[in-house]
Amino acid sequence: MSFNDNTGLVTALQNGEVDWAQAWITNVDSAFLNRDPDHNRQWTPAGLGIDAMFVNTTRPPFDNVAFRQAVNMVIDRDAHREIAREGGGVPALTSVTGLPSPAGDAFVAPEFQGATFEVDVEGAKAILTEAGYTGVGEALVDPQGNPVTFTLSVPQGWSDYVTGSSLIVDAVAALGVTATLETPDADTWWANRSNGNFDAILHWTDTGSTPWDIFDNTMGGRWLQPIGEGAHYNFGRFEHPEVDGFLTTFANATTAEDREAALVELQRIFVEQVPVMPIGTRPFIISFNTRNYVGWPDEDNPYIVSDFTQPWLSMVLKNLTPAG
Prior knowledge:
Elements: H1 6-14, E1 20-22, H2 28-31, E2 40-43, E3 46-55, H3 65-74, H4 77-84, H5 121-130, E4 149-153, H6 159-172, E5 178-182, H7 186-195, E6 200-204, H8 212-219, H9 243-252, H10 256-273, E7 276-283, E8 286-289, E9 293-294, H11 313-319, E10 321-322
Parallel strand pairs: 4-5, 4-6
Antiparallel strand pairs: 1-8, 2-8, 3-6, 3-7, 9-10
């Protein structure tokens, strides 16, 4: 079954029409878990994937790296976790490399060890001033004399993303930026996302066993398409002449030294060029009930992540047995 928004899915879960679901549930305790505490469950394991604000690097204002750096500095990741994700059951995203903790801790390059996201409005203002922006903190004007505005788009009904987007809109106001939140239907948003018809969107990366997916999804040249043609990742059309070489080296390296060297360079480009703004650790949000079937993977029996959009769907199905 598919639903247009989280509300419809939550209703189906509450009514017992759905046994297994993947969606954010606002006020999950009262909306789902406490309605049948003997059977209703949710598991939110975190891996090497993130939520990020993908920005269109082919047009103003995000074609300017100084502006991307400044916006990255005013986003409050703790507020995103606590407000948009309601705690989320996963650690906050803290490393400036975008690598989530704890899964990504071992991959963080030595130069970025201990370097964490901190809200720094004054530092962001200084970057903009040095880059030739005026009206900093009041009504921002770019070096070409244009007022700085952008639209952040997220589908209506995606409640956690809508709330998270609102937090970003509020945050950039401190720089003098006029940002607006747009909530089209999911089909329209999906098409605009792929075709590059947006200023900024919230989206996720794939989750793999290494950080390769995060950097490939956000910077990889293999995804590049002209504006107007569908891209499957790197929606913001970020281009860098060295990224693909480092991605290839990391994927094909025969020594740990070569792999680590490539990963260091990928992190450096990611931190300095800000192709996307990492927002939060992306958990697998899996809700299920045990009224009809048992054998689900969970924190007590984590034999696999029970995300039915992933290839390991069949493993979960093979482990389920009728309840009772």
